C-alpha cells in the first residue's frame, strides 16, 4: 500500500488508471455513436435515393464516398482523443510528481516530529527514572535522619531520666558520707557505724547500677516478635519515668481492669508508653497544672487489648490534632522536643504491631488510645 518512501501508492497509480479508463470509454462511446449515426443516415439516404431514382449505380458510389468520409472522421476523432489523453496524462504525471514531493515532505516532517516526540519521551522517561531514584534515595536519607534524630532525642531523654533516678540515691549517699564525717570529727565513729554506712552505700550503689541496666535493656532493640503481658511492658516504662514523675509531683494512677498477652515487640511497646507518659508529664509541667495527674488504664475487648493514657492538662488544640503524629511537628520549644516521639510511636504500633494509635480530648485533657490485637 505504501512505497519505500512511505508515500501512498494510490497517489501515483489511481490518476493514470482513471485517465486511461476515461479515454478508452470516451473513444469507444464516441465511435459507437458515430457508427450508429452513420448507419441511420445511410439508411435515410438509400430510401430517398430509391424514391427519386431507379438506378443504383450512383447509390453505391455515394455510399462508398460516405463510408470513406466516416472513416476519415473517426480517424481524426481518435487522433484528437489520443492527443487529449496524452496531454492529460502528462499533466497527471506532473501532478502526481508534485504530489509525491509534497507527500514525501509531509511524511518526512511527520517522521521528524515522531522522532522528536520519541526523543522527548525517552528523555522524560530517563528523567522520571532519575527523579524516582532520587526520591527513593531522599526518602531513605530522610528516614535515616529521622531515626538518628530519634536516637539522639532518646539519649537526651534517657540522660534526663537517669539524672532523676540517681538524684535520690546520690542525696542519700551524700548524707551517709556527711554522717561519717561528723562522727569521725567528734571521734564517735565505731566499727558498727562504719559497717552500717558501708551497707547502706552498697544498697544505693546497687540501686544505681540496676538503674543503668534497666535503661540499657529498655532501649535495646527487639530482634523477634514474642508474646508479652501488656501490664508488664507498661510497668517497664513506668520504672524508667517513675522518678521523673515523682520529682515533678505528678500522680500516676494505674488501673488494670483486664490484662492479656499480645504479640509483638515488648521493648518497642514500652517505648511507646514511655513516649506518651513523657509527653503528658512535659505538658503538665509546662502549663503548671495544679494537682497534675496521669491515668493509665489497661482493658480488653474480645481479642483486643485497649490501653488509654490521659492527663488533666486541658487537651490538644483542635488544629493540632491532625498534625500531632506528623514527623517534626511539636508544640514544645525546639530545645525540648524534636517532634519525632509520637511519629515513631505510631509507626511502632501501626506498622510493626498491626494496631492503632489515636488521640482525642475529653473534659479534662488529652486521651491517647492504643488498640492491639492479642
Summary?
This protein is an alpha+beta fold and 374 residues long. The protein has helices at residues 10-52, 57-185, 191-218, 230-247, 266-286, 318-321, 341-352, and strands spanning 226-229, 251-256, 261-264, 293-301, 304-311, 356-361, 366-373. It has three domains: 10-124; 144-199; 221-373, Heat Shock Protein 90.
Instruction: Return the string of H and E elements.
Output: HHHEHEEHEEHHEE
| Unreliable residue runs | 1-6
The number of helical segments is 7
Q: How large a portion of the residues is in β-strands, by DSSP E?
A: 5-15%
> Mind describing the biggest β-sheet?
5 strands, mixed
Record field, number of beta strands: 7
Shape: rod-shaped
Give Rg in angstroms: 54 Å
CATH architecture of the largest domain: 2-Layer Sandwich
Report helical residue fraction: 55-70%
Structure report:
- With 374 residues, the chain is of the alpha+beta class.
- It has three domains: 10-124; 144-199; 221-373, 2-Layer Sandwich (Heat Shock Protein 90).
- Helix content is 68%, strand content 12%.
- The chain is built from seven helices and seven strands.
- The chain has helices at 10-52, 57-185, 191-218, 230-247, 266-286, 318-321, 341-352; strands spanning 226-229, 251-256, 261-264, 293-301, 304-311, 356-361, 366-373.
- The strands form two sheets. A five-stranded mixed β-sheet has the order 2-4-5-7-6. It has a two-stranded antiparallel ribbon with strand order 1-3.
- A hairpin with a 4-residue loop joins strand 6 and strand 7.
- Helix 2 (57-185) crosses helix 4 (230-247), helix 3 crosses helix 4 and helix 4 runs parallel beside helix 5.
- The two termini are 72 Å apart.
- Mean pLDDT is 77; it is low at 1-6.
Amino acid at each position: 500500500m505504501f512505497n519505500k518512501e512511505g508515500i501512498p501508492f494510490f497517489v501515483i497509480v489511481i490518476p493514470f488508471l482513471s485517465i486511461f479508463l476515461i479515454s478508452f470509454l470516451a473513444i469507444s462511446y464516441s465511435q459507437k455513436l458515430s457508427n450508429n449515426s452513420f448507419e441511420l443516415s445511410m439508411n435515410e439516404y438509400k430510401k430517398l435515393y430509391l424514391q427519386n431514382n431507379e438506378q443504383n449505380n450512383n447509390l453505391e458510389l455515394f455510399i462508398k464516398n460516405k463510408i470513406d468520409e466516416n472513416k476519415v472522421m473517426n480517424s481524426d476523432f481518435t487522433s484528437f482523443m489520443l492527443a487529449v489523453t496524452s496531454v492529460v496524462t502528462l499533466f497527471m504525471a506532473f501532478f502526481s510528481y508534485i504530489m509525491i514531493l509534497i507527500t514525501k515532505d509531509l511524511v518526512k516532517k511527520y517522521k521528524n516530529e515522531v522522532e522528536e516526540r520519541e526523543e522527548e519521551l525517552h528523555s522524560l522517561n530517563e528523567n522520571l527514572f532519575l527523579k524516582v531514584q532520587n526520591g527513593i534515595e531522599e526518602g531513605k536519607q530522610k528516614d535515616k535522619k529521622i531515626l538518628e534524630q530519634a536516637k539522639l532525642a532518646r539519649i537526651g531523654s534517657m540522660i534526663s531520666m537517669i539524672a532523676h533516678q540517681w538524684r535520690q540515691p546520690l542525696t542519700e549517699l551524700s548524707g551517709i558520707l556527711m554522717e561519717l564525717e561528723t562522727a569521725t570529727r567528734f571521734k564517735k565513729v565505731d566499727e558498727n557505724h562504719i559497717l552500717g554506712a558501708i551497707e547502706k552505700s552498697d544498697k544505693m550503689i546497687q540501686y544505681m547500677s540496676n538503674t543503668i541496666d534497666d535503661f540499657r535493656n529498655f532501649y535495646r532493640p527487639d530482634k523477634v516478635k514474642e508474646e508479652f503481658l501488656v501490664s508488664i511492658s507498661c510497668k517497664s516504662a513506668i520504672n524508667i519515668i517513675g522518678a521523673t514523675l515523682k520529682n515533678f509531683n505528678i500522680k500516676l494512677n494505674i488501673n488494670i481492669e483486664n490484662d492479656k498477652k499480645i504479640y509483638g515487640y515488648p521493648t518497642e511497646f514500652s517505648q511507646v508508653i514511655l513516649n506518651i507518659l513523657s509527653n503528658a508529664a512535659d505538658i503538665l509541667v509546662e502549663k503548671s497544672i495544679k494537682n497534675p495527674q496521669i491515668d493509665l488504664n489497661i482493658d480488653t475487648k474480645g481479642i483486643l487489648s485497649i490501653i488509654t493514657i490521659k492527663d488533666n492538662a486541658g487537651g490538644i488544640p483542635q488544629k493540632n490534632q491532625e498534625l500531632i503524629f506528623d514527623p517534626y511537628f511539636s508544640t514544645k520549644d525546639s530545645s525540648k522536643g524534636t517532634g519525632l516521639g509520637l511519629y515513631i510511636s505510631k509507626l511502632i504500633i501501626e506498622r510493626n504491631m498491626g494496631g492503632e494509635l489515636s488521640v482525642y480530648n475529653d473534659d479534662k485533657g488529652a486521651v491517647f488510645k492504643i488498640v492491639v490485637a492479642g
